[in-house]
User: Fold these one by one.
Assistant:
Number 1:
Amino acid sequence: MAAVVHHGGARTTAHGLYAGVPCVICPFFADQPDWARRSVTLGVGATPVPRRSMTVERLASSIRQAVTDEALARNAKQLAKSLAVEDGVGNAIAIIKARLNGT
């Protein structure tokens, strides 16, 4: 697949990042706009298309950006590689233990 288009929920966003392809996030509510902004900041997300301002033209433009922007593709692949070797649970446990031990 060349890109993923989704609503920007935390789990969906994570799966998209692990896929290693650019994303187009169409946020509806809650934390979804934050994930949309974060994807752009990380250099893996095309211009978000919020539900309230969605048009065929805006969505098509963002999808076009996601599938043609070589930097987005390169960044998405690199982020997926980084995520694949990250031990998130182990890191979380270490942080919690350190806080509990007062360090």
Number 2:
Amino acid sequence: MAKQDYYSVLGLRRDASDKEIKQAYRRLARQYHPDVNPGDATAEQKFKEISEAYSVLSTPESRKKYDRFGHQAFSTRFDPGFASGEGFAGGYTGNLKDFFGGRSSFEGLSAIFEELWGGGRQRTPHTPASGSDREHTIDISFEEAMRGTTVHAQVPRRDGGMERLQVKIPPGVDTGSKVRVAGKGESGRYGGPPGDLYIVTRVRPHAYFTRQGNDILCEVPVTLLETLLGAKIEVPTIDGKATMTLPPGTQNGRRFRLRGKGAPALQGGGRGDHYVAVQVVLPEKLDARSRELLEEFAARNPQQPRASMRW
């Protein structure tokens, strides 16, 4: 059966960068690694194809030859002189390292490459493999999530001990956000690179702030007089106190926006907005004189707020 195109195996375009090739390999290798899929022959075969494709495309010289001649460039019967019209006769029968120019960069991939193309030898169990990623959840306050902080995390090591790490948490994280600590995951096998550690944040609820995306909502109690006559009031924000104006006749539950006073965007790009919802707080008890005044007020300001309702 004909081999599948190496770029297709890694899900890449032919003009993919070296970084994209490495990222695609690491992602697919973790997904199909035999340790993750024990006893799955299909996954094992897929892992072999991924490793084979990466071993060729990750080296500039071998990638150049593959782009020019395809899979036949790595056959022991391949005659590069015949294929290029340069008169090289007799077919290539030398060592694979000579074929790739003896570059030291080949050594890092020799285990995979020699196993896959080394004269029909079987794949050994000592192929370098990347370590698995790990996750560690930490609790932080709402204020720490808004301003950023530095946390000290104790994470278990492979040898059973504990490692203390100092991790910077950027402003704007939310519950479920992940902060990557490169190279602090599980150790690689047989010389493979270690995985990464992801610090997962869990933000504790705030007493009166609620986050909605990058916006913050806060309910603020006001008096009946403040809503009827209008007033300047102080409201809390994550930056401290802010002053806003209630216009006369403000309805209960109305929202006011303080632009740019919300949560910082985690990937940059400014901040969200802060919304203040006013909640009228009424007196629980009225004396006789207050009742007389309210009855007089009602008589002077007749209203029928349910007149438009039909039932």
Number 3:
Amino acid sequence: MVNQVFLCCLFLFTLSLLGIILNRKNLIVTLICIEMALLGVNLNFIIHSIDLDDILGQVYALCIIALGAAESALGLAILICLFKVRGDMTLHSAILLKH
């Protein structure tokens, strides 16, 4: 069972990395892909924590969930400010903010 769940975690993580790499326009999709990668890692931590009968993996997963929530809140706040300044939420307009 652990191998099947590990393959599911690997699929989630790989799919999220492909989404980040292939996405060239939408910043919201990039944030969703980052969250999906974090969820794949969390699922891996939790399953191996249950398999090894150790609570440390579940504590790590809880910390990663808190980190992901903070990242989503800050990312969405930055996207709202970007939309107010530029009028769109594309990656190109975010790159233009550096100049």
